[in-house]
Amino acid sequence: xxxxxxxxxxxxxxxxxxxxxxxxxxxxxxxxxxxxxxxxxxxxxxxxxxxxxxxxxxxxxxxxxxxxxxxxxxxxxxxxxxxxxxxxxxxxxxxxxxxxxxxxxxxxxxxxxxxxxxxxxxxxxxxxxxxxxxxxxxxxxxxxxxxxxxxxxxxxxxxxxxxxxxxxxxxxxxxxxxxxxxxxxxxxxxxxxxxxxxxxxxxxxxxxxxxxxxxxxxxxxxxxxxxxxxxxxxxxxxxxxxxxxxxxxxxxxxxxxxxxxxxxxxxxxxxxxxxxxxxxxxxxxxxxxxxxxxxxxxxxxxxxxxxxxxxxxxxxxxxxxxxxxxxxxxxx
Length: 332
Ligand code: G3H
Ligand code: 13P
Ligand code: ZN
Hints:
Bound molecules: glyceraldehyde-3-phosphate, 1,3-dihydroxyacetonephosphate, zinc ion
Largest sheet: 8 strands, parallel, barrel
Structural class: alpha/beta
Number of strands: 12
């Protein structure tokens, strides 16, 4: 058993309470590689922001769970080396799919886990979440749960259609499970193709897709039922057009990729939404930088040559999200 406290990590409890009270959101960035980890830490230190580094099932498979855990420990030390005296870094399991996965993460140094029972019937979701909470709380680890279904691919589980969270269910769910935060479905979705063209309108000037607005009425109703309770938004990448354009210009093929407009996330961050998940935007920034680099330097083959601009592009993206969208800067 490795306690996250020994690794210098923190859980989400105080972080979320402060974020809800002061009207900003904590960034939850997914990572699979060393470059993503470095860029996340550089951005968090530069902006004096707390940060959640999250690991999906796919990331555990790709990078190896032990390596990721040591990378998170390394992240804390790296933040200190960069001049941050007291980094606030959470190591979080994203979309945990079973009690066993959550337990294994808790036992190996995670400070927060998500148990995603959103595809289960309501009562089974409660039962599973409650079991994870009981184990996690023994170790002072915080638990995120989910009610409602996001469209798109959620960690290998594909849902064709989204089902908004039912506000009338949230009190029973939060009370019976004891979860620390709740991910809800209000129209966000995973990946770089969040909406089908027929769900959008088209800007007559640019020809670009304009996505439908998030269901802020559902968010408001949830907040009314659970005042001050930490709410989480998954699937919150904005799919920056500049990165999509660069990718397409240099040989990529991402037609009609569309995300959540940053303006809507800014609005959400001011509410009880205190954790916003971003993964796809970092993938796009990295891919755009690498494609551009290869197009301009066909003679390069040292990974450090193309991963340096990729890391810089991700850092720039993370800083932008923290300062211009979530408002978590200067909160350490
Ligand atoms: O919610 C999904 C995250 O973006 C993680 O994606 O399962 O491909 O690592 P992944
Ligand atoms: P995006 O695909 O919108 O980046 O969402 C990531 C996410 O929700 C991770 O859990
Ligand atoms: Zn997610």
